[in-house]
Design goal:
The protein is of the alpha+beta class. It has 27 helices and 24 strands. It is globular.
C-alpha cells in the first residue's frame, strides 16, 4: 500500500470515529444536554471530516459538510436554538454525511435529491438564525473552497474592519492591546484543524490586525507539502482578558508555537514593558492612507500618547502580499521550530507545559493508543491458544510419567500454567471492546424504520460500555438490526392505536447489554402490544409449520416466529413480509454459540434476550467422560455436581428419568444417549449428575459417566472445520492430542424435553 493510500485509509477510519462522536453529541443535545462542550464536539467532528475530505478532493462531501458546519456554527454561537425541529434536521444531516463518507470510501452514488433537500433545510436554519430570507442567506454564504475558509488556499482571510487609529492609540472603555504570535505546526493541519478559523474566532474578541510571515517558505525543490511554514502576528484590541484569548487556541495549543503578550495599557497609555508600536503597523497605515512610512510613524507616535483616541476611521485590512523575510517578526517572538512531517513528534514550547499540567490536574493524562492490524492480533491469539494446548500437554505427560506434585518439574509446570493464563487473559483483553460501536448504529436505524412505518419511537440504550470479544461484536450487527426492526415494525403500535389504548403516542424501545454468568446478555424490549399468540398460531398452521391439533405452550407459540418462512406481515413492505428475518437472527446467534429467547405480555410489550459467549477463543470447562468419548461442559452453565443415590432417581414416561435435588425434581438427561454414543441407558448410581441452568433459567441435570477435571480449553469451530452437529457447540484439542467436543447444554436439554419431558408438572408426576 502506497503512502497516499495509507493516509486515505486512516482518514476514513477517523471519519468513522468522528461520525460516531457527531451522532452521540446530537443525541445528547436532543436529550437537553446542549452545553458548550457537547456543541463544540459536534462542530469539531463535522469540521474535521470536511478538512480531511478537502485534502482528497471529495467535493460532494466537502460541500455538504461545509453547509452543515455553517449551521452548527450558528448553534455554537447561540444564534440558533437547539429545538427539537433543529436537532431532527441535524440528525438527518448526520445520516446524509455518513452516506457521503461511505460513497467516498466504497464508491457508488449518494441520494442527490435528498442531500440537496437537507442542504436547503440547513441553509434555511442559518437564514432564520440571522434574521435573513433564505435567498439573502444563500447569496451571503461562501463556497467551501473560498479562500476565506481553507487554510491551504494561500492562507487568505476574510476582510476584517480594523480601526487602526484606535488600535495605535490604545482604544478605550477598558480595552487592552495584545500581541499574539501564532505559528502552526504540521500536526495542526494533519488533524484537520484550520488556522484561518482560529484567527476568525480570535478577531471575534475585538478589533485586530493580522500579518503573515512567509519568510520560512523554502525553495520549491525543498518544500514539504505537509509542512507548515507560516507565522501569524496579530495585534488585538479587546476588552477580554488573556484567558479568553487562550480559549480560542484551546484545541490547537499543543500543535503550535504560541505567545500572548499585552503591549499597551489603554488606560494610562504607558508602555507595558513590551515593544513599541511595530514599524510594520506604521507601514501598513501608510499604505492605506497614501502616506510615506515616516509620515505615518510621526502620525502614530502622538496618537499613542493621546489621552483620548482620535475619531475612528474604520478601514478594511486584508492579507498583504508575501512580506520580505523577517518583516513581521516582533522582538518578543519565540524562535520558530522547523516544520515537522505528519505524525512526527513535535517539541512543545514552554507555554504548553502549563496547559499540560492543567489538563493533568483536571482529568489525568489521556490514554495512549496505537493502531494494529486485526490480523496481527488474531495471529497472536492463535499462538497463545497453541501455547495453552502445549502447556496442558506437558502437564498431562508429567502426570502420566508419575512425577510427584511436589517435584521441581511439577512446580515449574504449575508456574507455567499460571503465566500462560495471565498471557491469555491479557491477549484476550486486547480484543475486548465495548458494544458501543454496535449500539451507535442503532439510533439512525430506529429513525429510518420509524419514518417508514409512520411511528414515533424513542430509543434507549444501556450498558454500551459492556466489553466483549471483537469477533462477537462484528457479528452482532445483523441480529441486532433485525431485532430492532422487528421491535419497531411488529412490536410497537401506530400512534393513534397507542393513544386509544391509553399509552403515550411515542413508543419506547430499550436495548441493554450486561454481563451475566460469564456471558454477555443483550435485551431488546418494547412497550408495544406484545405477541398476538392466536394470530401467530393461526399463521403457523396455515403455512404448515405446525399441525393444527398440536398442543403448544405460550413459550412454544412465541418461538414459532423463529421458524423459516414465518411472517405476520399481511403485505410486503420495505421492512417486512418477505418470509425472512427472525429465523436469520436465530441462526446467526446460534453460530456464535449463543441463544435467543422471548418473553411477552399481551398489551404490555415483548423482550428478546440474546445470550452470547464473551469470547469465541477460549472457555473454562469441565472435562467429562460420556460413553467412550471425552467431552467438555462449559463451566458457566454448571451449578454443582453430585453422585445420585438410588432413592433419588425416579422413572417417568418410558425411558425418561427425574432426579430429586433438595425436594425438587429435575429432568435427568442421559448425555450419551442424547448424542447417540450408546443405546443403553447410563447407570445413574455409578455416574455423575451435573446440575446445569439454561439461559431461560430452567434447571436440569446432565448424566455423564465420570469427571476428569477442570481446565481452560481453546475453542475450535466444528462448523468451519466439519459441519454443524446438533448438541455440539464447538470442539477443542486435549493435552494428548485428541479432539473433544464442547457440549451445547441448552440444545441437549431442549432436545430431551421435546422427546417427552416438560418442566411443568414434574413434581406432580414424581409424586
Amino acid at each position: 500500500m502506497d503512502a497516499m493510500a495509507e493516509i486515505r485509509q486512516t482518514f476514513f477510519e477517523e471519519c468513522a470515529e468522528q461520525l460516531a462522536e457527531l451522532e452521540a453529541g446530537l443525541l445528547a443535545i436532543e436529550n437537553g444536554e446542549a452545553d458548550a462542550d457537547t456543541v463544540n464536539a459536534v462542530f469539531r467532528a463535522v469540521h474535521s471530516i470536511k478538512g480531511g475530505a478537502g485534502a482528497f478532493s471529495l467535493d460532494d462531501l466537502v460541500r455538504f459538510a461545509h453547509i452543515f458546519e455553517t449551521t452548527l456554527d450558528e448553534l455554537r454561537s447561540d444564534r440558533l436554538e437547539a429545538s427539537d425541529v433543529v436537532v431532527k434536521v441535524m440528525l438527518r444531516a448526520a445520516d446524509a454525511l455518513a452516506d457521503l463518507v461511505t460513497v467516498a470510501r466504497d464508491g457508488g452514488t449518494a441520494d442527490a435529491s435528498r442531500n440537496e433537500g437537507l442542504a436547503t433545510e440547513l441553509k434555511d436554519l442559518v437564514a432564520a438564525a440571522k434574521g435573513e430570507s433564505p435567498a439573502e442567506a444563500a447569496a451571503a454564504e461562501p463556497e467551501p473552497d473560498d479562500a476565506a475558509d481553507d487554510a491551504d488556499d494561500d492562507f487568505g482571510f476574510v476582510p476584517v474592519a480594523v480601526d487602526l487609529d484606535e488600535l495605535i492609540g490604545g482604544g478605550g472603555g477598558g480595552d487592552q492591546v495584545y500581541r499574539i504570535v501564532f505559528r502552526p505546526h504540521a500536526a495542526l493541519y494533519a488533524k484537520a484543524n484550520d488556522s484561518v478559523r482560529v484567527l476568525r474566532d480570535l478577531l471575534e474578541l475585538g478589533e485586530g490586525n493580522v500579518q503573515c510571515d512567509t519568510s520560512e517558505i523554502p525553495l520549491l525543490s525543498d518544500l514539504d507539502p505537509e509542512g507548515a511554514y507560516f507565522t501569524f502576528t496579530i495585534d488585538l484590541t479587546t476588552a477580554e482578558g488573556e484567558e479568553k484569548i487562550r480559549e480560542v487556541f484551546e484545541f490547537v495549543e499543543d500543535d503550535c508555537d504560541l505567545s500572548i503578550e499585552r503591549i499597551l495599557d489603554p488606560e494610562t497609555g504607558s508602555d507595558d514593558g513590551a515593544v513599541d508600536v511595530d514599524s510594520d503597523l506604521a507601514d501598513l497605515l501608510a499604505s492605506l492612507r497614501g502616506e510615506t512610512s515616516n509620515e505615518a510613524a510621526a502620525d502614530a507616535a502622538p496618537a499613542a500618547k493621546a489621552d483620548k483616541p482620535k475619531p475612528s476611521k474604520p478601514v478594511t485590512a486584508e492579507q498583504p502580499a508575501p512580506a520580505p523575510a523577517g518583516s513581521t517578526t516582533p522582538a518578543a517572538e519565540p524562535e520558530a521550530s522547523a516544520a515537522a512531517p505528519v505524525g512526527a513528534p513535535v517539541e512543545k514550547p514552554a507555554k504548553a507545559d502549563a496547559s499540560e499540567a492543567k489538563s493533568a490536574n483536571v482529568g489525568g493524562s489521556p490514554t495512549q493508543t496505537i493502531r494494529v492490524d486485526l490480523e496481527r492480533v488474531d495471529r497472536l491469539i492463535d499462538l497463545v491458544g497453541e501455547l495453552v494446548i502445549h502447556q496442558v500437554m506437558l502437564s498431562q505427560r508429567t502426570y502420566q510419567a508419575g512425577l510427584a506434585r511436589a517435584s521441581e518439574v511439577a512446580v515449574g509446570l504449575d508456574e507455567l500454567e499460571q503465566l500462560t493464563r495471565e498471557i491469555q487473559d491479557s491477549v484476550m483483553a486486547i480484543r475486548a471492546q465495548p458494544v458501543k460501536s454496535v449500539f451507535q448504529r442503532l439510533p439512525r436505524l430506529a429513525r429510518e424504520v420509524a419514518e417508514i412505518s409512520g411511528k414515533t419511537v424513542r430509543l434507549v440504550t444501556e450498558g454500551e460500555w459492556t466489553e466483549v470479544d471483537k469477533t462477537v461484536i462484528e457479528r452482532l450487527a445483523d441480529p441486532l438490526t433485525h431485532m430492532l426492526r422487528n421491535a419497531i415494525d411488529h412490536g410497537l403500535e401506530k400512534p393513534d392505536v397507542r393513544l386509544a389504548a391509553g399509552k403515550p403516542e411515542e413508543g419506547t424501545v430499550k436495548v441493554a447489554a450486561m454481563h451475566r454468568s460469564g456471558r454477555i446478555v443483550i435485551e431488546i424490549t418494547d412497550d408495544g402490544a406484545g405477541i398476538n399468540r392466536p394470530k401467530v398460531r393461526e399463521i403457523a398452521v396455515s403455512k404448515g409449520l405446525v399441525p393444527a391439533e398440536a398442543n403448544l405452550s405460550d413459550e412454544e407459540i412465541d418461538n414459532l416466529i423463529f421458524m423459516p418462512g414465518f411472517s405476520t406481515a399481511s403485505e410486503i413492505s420495505e421492512l417486512s413480509g418477505r418470509g425472512v428475518g427472525m429465523d436469520v437472527v436465530k441462526r446467526s446467534i446460534q453460530a456464535l454459540g449463543g441463544r435467543v429467547s422471548i418473553t411477552s405480555k399481551p398489551g404490555k410489550g415483548s423482550t428478546f434476550t440474546m445470550s452470547l459467549p464473551l469470547t469465541l477463543a477460549v472457555l473454562d470447562g469441565m472435562i467429562v467422560t460420556v460413553g467412550d468419548q471425552t467431552a467438555v461442559v462449559p463451566l458457566t452453565a454448571i451449578i454443582e455436581t453430585l453422585q445420585p443415590k438410588p432413592e433419588e432417581v425416579k422413572g417417568f414416561g418410558g425411558d425418561a428419568r427425574l432426579i430429586k435435588v433438595r425436594d425438587a425434581f429435575l429432568p435427568l438427561v442421559d448425555v450419551a444417549r442424547e448424542l447417540a454414543y450408546t443405546s443403553t441407558p447410563t447407570n445413574a448410581t455409578t455416574g455423575v449428575a451435573i446440575l446445569v441452568e439454561a439461559e431461560n433459567g430452567t434447571r436440569s441435570a446432565l448424566l455423564v459417566d465420570a469427571i476428569q477435571g477442570q481446565r481452560q480449553v481453546v475453542i475450535k469451530s466444528l462448523e468451519a472445520n466439519y459441519r454443524r452437529v446438533p448438541g455440539i457447540a464447538a470442539a477443542t484439542i486435549l493435552g494428548d492430542g485428541r479432539v473433544a467436543l464442547i457440549l451445547d447444554v441448552d440444545v441437549i436439554v431442549a432436545t430431551s424435553r421435546t422427546d417427552g419431558i416438560h418442566s411443568n408438572g414434574l413434581q406432580q408426576a414424581a409424586e
